[in-house]
């Protein structure tokens, strides 16, 4: 069964939820999450890397029906192989302004016929040594370009924060300069039809691992997974990858629905207003007693606190709390990126 709201109406979700622009009151685990909270990079201690040096000759080739990628590749080498591979310095090829505080950064892989080597879902870590600093700055990022069908480059979508140690450095970079990368960092191992229905709850740049999942599911004609996305931001301009999401939603209207929530919406905004609340999720997420569902959460610390509780470490998901626990979901039904 698709989300309960989809059964009730095929039109856009309309919400009249109180909005505010500062931090949500800290009263209980169900405190609504303010979509404008700043994201903080996950800790790097304890990350393990996937090891897989070459694509097997017997590995399936990308489907001719695959979409939302670029140039198709068959058997090819991988830039990131995990295991004992050290950091790889990649040259910045292009910087593209995305909106008022976000940019796209395209980095060249060591060889033009290489793919990144990432799996779904996985990420890379970046490293930068600030002048006169004792330790390097390390941050994880999920690239937005396809893992299988794109070769020669890696693309990051990065929101630049005034005091962001890594994002500020990226913002200062010009084509020709280099940044250190390592990966893949394994996250949630996806396989076609692993779950009947997944719900993705994201805030800000937390959309990137969600988009990685969405893209993998809907480019594979064998994967029939149903997907609901709940995505919170400050303003409409802050919604990242909106065109890509809309294109997929138009092509797969029976299997993919996106619900947007804004802290500062325009007057004609037809979706959610204010914050991602218990009432909103109750209308979108399948009943906790549904079989074979999964909920993914990614965003700023405030989102985790309100929706699911924080992770204990990169390897430990921690206990489930917040709105999802109050709605009756179990720890096994939730994954925190």
Overview of the structural elements:
- It is a single chain.
- The chain is an alpha/beta fold and 337 residues long.
- The chain folds into two domains: 4-40 and 188-336, Nucleotide-binding domain of ferredoxin-NADP reductase (FNR) module (Rossmann fold), CATH 3.40.50; 88-186, Beta Barrel (Elongation Factor Tu (Ef-tu), domain 3).
- Helices cover 16% and strands 24% of the residues.
- The chain contains seven helices and 14 strands.
- The protein has helices spanning 4-8, 165-172, 207-219, 242-251, 278-284, 301-307, 322-326, and strands spanning 33-34, 88-97, 102-108, 122-128, 137-141, 153-159, 178-186, 197-203, 226-233, 256-262, 272-273, 275-276, 293-298, 334-336.
- The strands form three sheets. A six-stranded antiparallel sheet has the order 5-4-7-2-3-6, covered by helices on one side.
- Mean pLDDT is 83; it is low at 4-74.
- May mediate the reduction of outer membrane cytochrome b5.
- It comes from Capronia epimyces CBS 606.96.
- Its EC number is 1.6.2.2.
Which SSEs are present, and which pair or pack?
Elements (H helix, E strand, L loop, with lengths): L3 H5 L24 E2 L53 E10 L4 E7 L13 E7 L8 E5 L11 E7 L5 H8 L5 E9 L10 E7 L3 H13 L6 E8 L8 H10 L4 E7 L9 E2 L1 E2 L1 H7 L8 E6 L2 H7 L14 H5 L7 E3 L1
Parallel strand pairs: 8-9, 8-13, 9-10, 10-11, 13-14
Antiparallel strand pairs: 1-12, 2-3, 2-7, 3-6, 4-5, 4-7
């Amino acid at each position: 069964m698709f989300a309960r709201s989809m059964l009730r109406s095929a039109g856009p979700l309309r919400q009249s939820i109180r909005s505010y622009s500062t931090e949500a009151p800290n009263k209980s685990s169900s405190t609504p999450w303010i979509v404008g909270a700043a994201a903080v990079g996950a800790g790097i201690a304890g990350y393990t890397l996937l090891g897989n040096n070459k694509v097997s000759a017997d590995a399936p080739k990308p489907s001719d029906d695959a979409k939302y990628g670029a140039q198709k590749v068959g058997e090819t080498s991988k830039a990131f192989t995990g295991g004992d591979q050290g950091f790889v310095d990649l040259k910045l090829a292009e910087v593209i302004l995305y909106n008022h505080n976000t940019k796209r950064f395209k980095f060249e892989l060591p060889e033009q016929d290489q793919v990144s080597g990432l799996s779904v879902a996985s990420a890379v870590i970046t490293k930068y040594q600030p002048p006169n600093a004792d330790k390097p700055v390390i941050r994880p990022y999920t690239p937005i370009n396809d893992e299988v069908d794109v070769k020669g480059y890696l693309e990051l979508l990065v929101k630049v924060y005034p005091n962001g140690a890594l994002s500020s450095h990226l913002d200062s970079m010009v084509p020709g300069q280099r940044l250190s990368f390592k990966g893949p960092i394994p996250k949630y191992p996806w396989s076609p039809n692993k779950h009947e229905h997944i719900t993705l709850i994201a805030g800000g740049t937390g959309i990137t691992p969600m988009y990685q999942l969405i893209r993998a599911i809907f480019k594979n004609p064998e994967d029939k997974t149903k997907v609901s996305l709940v995505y919170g931001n400050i303003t409409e301009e802050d919604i990242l990858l909106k065109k890509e999401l809309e294109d997929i939603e138009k092509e797969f209207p029976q299997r993919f629905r996106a619900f947007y929530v804004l802290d500062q919406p325009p007057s004609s905004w037809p979706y959610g207003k204010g914050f991602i609340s218990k009432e909103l999720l109750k209308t979108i997420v399948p009943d906790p007693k549904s079989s074979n569902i999964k909920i993914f959460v990614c965003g700023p610390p405030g989102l985790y606190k309100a929706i699911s509780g924080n992770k204990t470490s990169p390897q430990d998901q921690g206990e489930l709390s917040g709105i999802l626990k109050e709605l009756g979901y179990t720890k096994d039904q939730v994954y925190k990126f």
